Amino acid sequence: MAKSQESSSGHHHHHLHLHHSHNNHKKESAPVIDVNVRDVATVAAGLVRPGTLFRASEIFNLPEVKTVIDLRGGGAILPGPPNAHRVLVKFITPKAAMKILWGTGPTALFPAAASKVQGDSFKVAMAAKTFKYLGLRDMYRIFVTTCQHEIKKAVVPLADAAAFPAVIHCTHGKDRTGVVIGLLLTLVGVSKEAVLADYGRSAKEILSAQERGEISDEHAALQMKSEYITSDPADLRDSLFAHLEKKHLATNLAVSARQYLVKECKVSQKDVDSIIANLKPRVCISCV
């Protein structure tokens, strides 16, 4: 095993903290806040190096992050590290969107009418129909079986050791982000139970931020109603993990995740090895 590459200074970025800044903006502006933001190492039972990889909604304040992987594919540049390298991944491809629409049913063809009646935005009306008629479980299944190229684009940047600390985010930080983070945690050996528990935290984090009034109308941070913000661990279990266990049955789920990335997402074995090495805690032989 290679010696630790950390210098004697300890590379303090692994102590990166979540900053809650409320004073650096004009009075009429909403504060820069952290919504559904956490270091994935907190659930990884020592299998991920602290301060390496974060998950978040589209609202976060992590000034020391070097790489931002945006699963929305761009859009408004919201508060975050201004000098970070941004990787834009349009996770929901036209093919995936058509499958979601098809699964949602004919009523999905008329979201504008529903929006006008309900007074909601186009996005909210569309999301409401998706949640009611399709559900998160089937939407995640579409992600896993249709968006392999997008998953590759999201994870390959993590094969570069210079990319860290990094954050992966989408709008809420629970659906697209939940699938990608769940896959990465599984790859490094985190148990299915721990991954599902972490996924289940997201709805609680978002709703708690709403209740505290930390999400303003001006920010339009989540753009969805509270009743649609759910994260039932069974949805991820019966989509991502069901696929890994059915299509890539192996001695353990970490191997299944590797096989999925290599065979379906076309990530090279070398990149998979590098991703694991970059996320895992470094071992200092001289310290043993």
Largest pleated sheet:
5 strands, mixed
Which bin fits the share of residues in helices? 40-55%
Tell me, briefly, the overall form: globular
Radius of gyration: 19 Å
Structural class: alpha/beta
- Strand order in the sheet with the most strands: 1-2-5-3-4
Please count the beta strands (DSSP E, at least 2 residues each): 5
Give the amount of beta strand, in percent: 5-15%
Instruction: Give unreliable regions as ranges.
Output: 1-15, 19-30, 106-117, 217-224
- Oligomeric form: single chain
**Mean pLDDT, all residues:** 78
Report the span from N to C terminus: 12 Å
Output the helix-strand order. EEEEHHHHHEHHHHH
What's the helix count? 10
Describe this structure in words.
The protein has 288 residues and is of the alpha/beta class. The chain is 42% helix and 6% strand. The chain is built from 10 helices and 5 strands. The chain has helices at 94-104, 111-118, 122-133, 136-146, 148-155, 176-187, 192-211, 233-247, 253-264, 269-279; strands spanning 38-39, 53-56, 67-70, 85-88, 166-169. A 5-stranded mixed beta sheet has the order 1-2-5-3-4, with helices on one face. Helix 1 runs antiparallel to helix 4 (136-146) and helix 7 (192-211) runs antiparallel to helix 8 (233-247). It is globular, with a radius of gyration of 19 Å. The model is unreliable at 1-15, 19-30, 106-117 and 217-224 (pLDDT under 50).
